[in-house]
Design a protein that fits this description.
Layout: H1 2-14, E1 29-38, E2 41-51, E3 57-67, E4 70-80, E5 85-94, E6 97-103, E7 114-117, E8 119-130, E9 140-154, E10 161-179, E11 186-198, E12 209-221
Antiparallel strand pairs: 1-4, 1-12, 2-3, 3-6, 4-5, 5-8, 6-7, 8-9, 9-10, 10-11, 11-12
């Protein structure tokens, strides 16, 4: 899926938009809906020990813990406040897997990976700053973004949930492919890469982690 998203983005950015009537305004509201790749997190390994007859501890096996990367949905609604700035509401949905992988078993047992599928929802807000002035003739728009979001993580049985606040920042590029002087002002695509700072409340090792996100979206301006 990641290769297909990248190929579609590359093709669309290489296209020359067909001629269309230029709108009197580039639009004040923008909706972007698409797909993303949400990077995984490797957490601190855990040593499982036992107390020997002489009172000293012995490591029975090590337990690696990780949240896998996964594809998911990514969305954004933005309101233009100036030619360079947008304020926005964001959201995402992804289903990563929490995996536990034992190793170095003292009895030589073969490692068996255990895991559970999670559901992760985020709802938040942020800002985008565009490097160029946006008007009805501007088609290629590089930008940087930053924001915070509330995240809720449901475990496989939906009886246990974790939540917290995450922060994210990154940058990307937006390419308008079509303009129109009507209710829909334009249609384009958007691609960005972000770093997400995940709170320790969402990690089984109780530590804060940073994970990458790569997203591509269809953009509609009103």
């Amino acid at each position: 899926m990641t290769r297909a998203v990248c190929a579609a983005v590359a093709l669309a950015f290489g296209m020359t938009a067909p001629a269309a009537a230029q709108p009197s305004s580039p639009g004040r509201v923008e909706v972007a809906i698409g797909a993303g790749w949400f990077g995984g997190v490797s957490m601190t390994p855990l040593a499982i020990t036992e107390t020997q007859s002489n009172g000293t501890p012995r490591t029975v096996f090590a337990l690696a813990r990780q949240l896998t990367s996964a594809a998911g949905a990514d969305a954004r609604i933005a309101v233009r406040v100036s030619s360079h700035w947008d304020v926005e509401a964001t959201g995402s949905y992804v289903r990563p897997q929490l995996q536990l992988v034992p190793s170095n078993d003292v009895e030589g047992a073969a490692p068996v990976t255990a895991g559970e599928r999670l559901q992760e929802f985020t709802v938040g807000g942020g800002v985008s700053w565009f490097f160029v002035d946006r008007d009805s003739s501007t088609r290629t728009l590089p930008f940087v973004i930053a924001g915070v979001a509330y995240v809720r993580q449901l475990h496989e049985t939906s009886t246990l949930a974790d939540d917290g606040l995450l922060a994210q920042a990154g940058g990307g590029i937006e390419r308008m492919l079509w303009w129109h002087d009507g209710h829909v002002k334009g249609i384009g695509i958007r691609a960005d890469a972000r770093a997400r700072v995940r709170p320790k409340a969402l990690a089984v090792d109780g530590r804060t982690h940073v994970a990458p996100v790569i997203a591509a979206s269809l953009v509609v301006r009103f």
